[in-house]
Amino acid sequence: MRRLVLTLIVIVLLVLALMVGFLNEGLITVNYLLAQATIRVSTFITIVLGGGIVIGLALLLPAYLRVRMQLASLRQKHNQAESSS
């Protein structure tokens, strides 16, 4: 049930993002360190959001992997303790 609710929330957010993207057809000028580009607002929002997601996942992945390894170690110790008793 929880997975269904989360899936529905994600779908609603994606639909809202598409709607906002279609409404933002204006052009903006983005100044980089060495260059400048004129792009649509929706494209800029997509690039920034995608970059934020990638950076967030890159920062959270090591902690997630560490916790998963600790969980596997504890399960192994638990199984050994159960089999010895």
Description:
The protein has helices at residues 2-23, 41-84; strands spanning 27-31, 36-40. It has 85 residues and is mainly α. The protein contains 2 helices and 2 strands. The mean pLDDT is 89. A two-stranded antiparallel ribbon has the order 1-2. It is elongated, with a radius of gyration of 22 Å.
Topology overview:
Layout: H1 2-23, E1 27-31, E2 36-40, H2 41-84
Antiparallel strand pairs: 1-2
Helix pairs in contact: 1-2
Summarize the structure in short.
This protein is mainly alpha-helical and 85 residues long. It has helices at residues 2-23, 41-84; strands spanning 27-31, 36-40. 78% of the residues lie in helices and 12% in strands.
* Oligomer description: single chain
Low-pLDDT residue intervals, each spanning 5 or more residues: none
> Class by helix and strand content?
mainly alpha
- How much β-strand is present in the residues? 5-15%
Largest sheet: 2 strands, antiparallel
Q: How far is the N terminus from the C terminus?
A: 37 Å
Total beta strand runs: 2
Mean pLDDT: 89
Radius of gyration computed on alpha carbons: 22 Å
Q: Helix count?
A: 2
